[in-house]
Amino acid sequence: MFGRIRNKSKSGRNNSEEIVQTGSYGPIPPSADAVKASLNEIFSNCCDFILREIACGKNGAIRILVAYIDGFVSKNELNQDVVRPILDFLANEESPGGSSIYNRLTDCIVVNNDIHEAADMHQAVDGIISGEAVLFIDGETRALVVGVKAPQGRQVQEPDTETSIRGAREGFVENLLTNTALIRKRIKNPNLKLEMMHLGDRTKTNVCICYIKGLANEAIVREVRERLKKIKTDAVLDSGIIEQYISDNRLSLFPTVGSSEKCDKLAGKLLEGRVAIFCDGSPHVLTVPYLFVESIQATDDYFDHAFFATFMRLLRVIALTTSTLLPAMYVALVVYHHTVIPFKLLLTLAASQQGIPFSPFVEAMLMIVAFELLREAGVRMPKPIGQALSIVGAIVLGEASVAAGIASNLMVIVVAITAVCSFIVPPLLRASMLLRFMFLIAANFLGILGIAFVAVAVFVHLCKMRSFGVPYMAPFAPLTVNDLKDAFIVVPIWAMITRPKILRQQENVRGAKGSQRQEVNIQQ
Amino acid sequence: MEKTQISGIQLYLILLGFLFGSSVILTPALGAGRDAWLAMILAGVAGILLMWVYTTIALLNPSKTLVEILRDKLGKVIGTILSVLYIWYFVHLAALVFRNFGEFICTTTLPETPVAVVMGLFALVLLYVVNSGIEVLGRLSELFVLILPTVVLIISIALITEHDFTAFLPVLEDGMAPVIQAAFVNLTFPFGEAVAFLMVFPHLNRMDNLKKVVISSTATSSALAIFVFARDLIALGSDLIARATFIPHLTSLLIPEFNVVPLVDINLLVGGGVKISVCIYAAAKGLSQVTGTHDYRSFSRAVITFCVVLSVWVYENLIEMFAWAEKLWPYYSIPFQFVIPLLLLLLSLRGKNKPSQPNTENTETESCTSDA
């Protein structure tokens, strides 16, 4: 089976290589008619491709082709900044030859600032498909690429997936340059570096590595670059695809690459010395290295009083443990360890179990699966129907199952608490969902001992993992005392003098010392 | 050498788990009855001396494991024979702990499950631990070993109302002999068993900390064990203590309105887990060095399977195991824990004095010539 998959992937790669080869269209022919013919052939059956010919100068001696994709470019800008000046300035010229016209266009005619040269047909086509206008001049083998992209996509708005009480409401959007500008706006520093690269043989998605020079560990930045370069695929539609390719432990349930939609969160991560990866077309920006402890951190923690923040952290830890372990613990106690349960509760429990045909394990499985179905339905369903779903869920799960004698009262409470807790730590939602079933099965076989066995195995796995060379369970294991200030306990922000040491930044101290050194750098 | 390294605090915690782990359910110095605490103090002091011996051996032979030291000091043939014996000793120790664990679980929590099933599943988990390397074991210890003193604290606080301080009296009713006998038993179990750590010491990242870490860990574990015994004695009285099989477990049953047996189970899982992991690691690593292969992982699976089978096969029942562990184990351990290590210490000290002097002379002359 594996052989087959490998064969498939091999043939896929061959295809993509062919595309790259046919992708080079050779040099730009000097004659405008030849350019026209070849462009029409490349963009055959593309109704959004527009090729306009301008004939100006005396007797129409100067011929210029304007090629662009409709809907991609701002037509106003194109007319104002490119076409009108050409018509104005070149109206009465004799044709002085293609190359001199090209120079005049770049020097004093085209108003737009974002212009560059395309040396061959391939680059010109690249410009057209990435939303720029390209000017071909009769008698010239260079083309002029003019960036007149129309603003695309939705406005900056608050992300639905990550909401916070304190902190900025701005979230990332699908457009990469808007996203990078949002970060620039927060970190006004030339040391914020943005390195662009193109991934995906067919989609040619813009991907951008972002880090603060002098802060992020160079080795990690290098590693990110290497791993991104190694990605061999023809389509990068979302940062999620990049995430899967660059993860350290690709089969692990636990995320080793973080993703966020919030600008202030990302800025914070960058300032801790992490590296961010933007992907055009995705509002989710990736951050590496991503450690276990980050899943219980939230931006609110740093904007709020440290005591409340600490309390919230502890709540999140409790929620994480509860959502993973509670059903398993319940089953273990009911099946194996009656003696642990206080006597009065045991009586209630026995009463509620009476008349239920299933074992606690089957009961728990049924209820958890039912809940997961409802949750998934809630995600996929069109929003207006959501209300109906919640009513059905509440009645079916809460009332009818008990009345019908399928589940006991206590089991409904257990599953409800589990469900509520599972939403408190979103990055580990999926991991804890699957682990819940593993723990449940183990608990049904060996009681608490089974839970302990699985827990040890899970922790071995966690301790083994690394994210871009940084131990995943840091700062707990290996113990980094210095970093415990931002783990279960949050110290006030004015006392958080050092950055997380485990990331091995070049500059560990926040505040005065760091900024002074930066000034020196700039003077040099 | 492998490059995996553990920090001082990790070694401290691994050793603490190793030494204190079995005391969660067994009290080795029980032969002295109510005077066991005296025996434990003696054993603790002797244990620290023993650790001094082991660490000195490790420091005199830096970055060498027990097998390498043995072959180095005693020649290839004798060294290999002794190494194989040591490997057997570690395997046997692991098997004992396995059986201990299995019997405890099957007696207290899962009476209908066969011992072999419990031990087999435990072995699977521990195999994963051992194969993940000593580094991961260190990190796991950082997460889990602190559970041990926490549970001791919880149970002690819960039992604060159950006390009878006269249980200590009369002190030394039968004279010193049983106390010394019990102290010796306690020295061989658990302190002497730490000889397995001679396979782990080379992984410490800063060797100058070694003595401090090991000795403070030993002192902590013996202080904890004495505290636990004193608590049990005060709570249970000397009569019950003399008759019970698993004393700390019995004590935990005294807690009113609440049953903490699962907590004791978890404790044993942590302590026993650390102990077995270290033994299996030492045995597998030793085998790989004896046979000259690089990776111990190819042996660990076989070693752990063998341990489980051995532990099922070697004792008929719980009583036989206890009798063996009490009567024979201490004497069986003498050569491994005392005789050979002392021999190695002497040889290392001699070896150190001899070649190091010409070395220093050489460097001095070299520096002189370079100065000239």
Automatic annotation (TrEMBL), chain A:
Residues 1-11 have a biased composition (Basic residues). Keywords: Membrane, Transmembrane, Transmembrane helix. Coiled coil: none annotated. Residues 1-25 are annotated as: Disordered. The chain crosses the membrane at residues 314-336, 356-374, 395-425, 437-463. One of its GO terms (cellular component) is membrane. Residues 12-24 have a biased composition (Polar residues). GO terms for biological process: spore germination. Belongs to the GerABKA family. This is Spore germination protein KA.
UniProtKB/TrEMBL annotation, chain B:
This is Spore germination protein KB. It comes from the Bacteria. Residues 353-372 are annotated as: Disordered. It is a multi-pass membrane protein. GO terms for cellular component: membrane. Pfam families: Spore_permease (PF03845). InterPro entries: Spore_GerAB. GO terms for biological process: spore germination. Keywords: Germination, Membrane, Transmembrane, Transmembrane helix, Transport. The keyword Transmembrane helix applies.
